[in-house]
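Hello,

Our lab assistant flagged a job as stuck in the queue for most of the afternoon. It eventually completed. Since we weren't sure the result was trustworthy after the delay, we are filing this so someone can double-check. Below is the sequence as submitted and the structure that was eventually returned. Let us know if re-running is recommended.
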Amino acid sequence: ATNSLGFSALPAGGLTDEGFDFMHSVAGFWFSSEENNDEANALVLNNVNNEYGFFPITKLGGLSVRCVKD
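-- returned structure --
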């Protein structure tokens, strides 16, 4: 989906301690900021209930990366 600003994302899921999960339902993107030594901040978009949030996620997990030109 694309919003009014032209942002679009595909729900690629993420890597958890149990393997790849949440494909087709969640898109997660790392922020450059850290929460602490074990967690980094992420934006999570939920395609199932059309919600989003900002969460600290363990660095052992895997999320998508979106490159933004300055």
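-- support follow-up --
The delay was a queue issue, not a problem with the job. The result is valid. The first strand starts at residue 14 and ends at 16. The radius of gyration is 12 Å.
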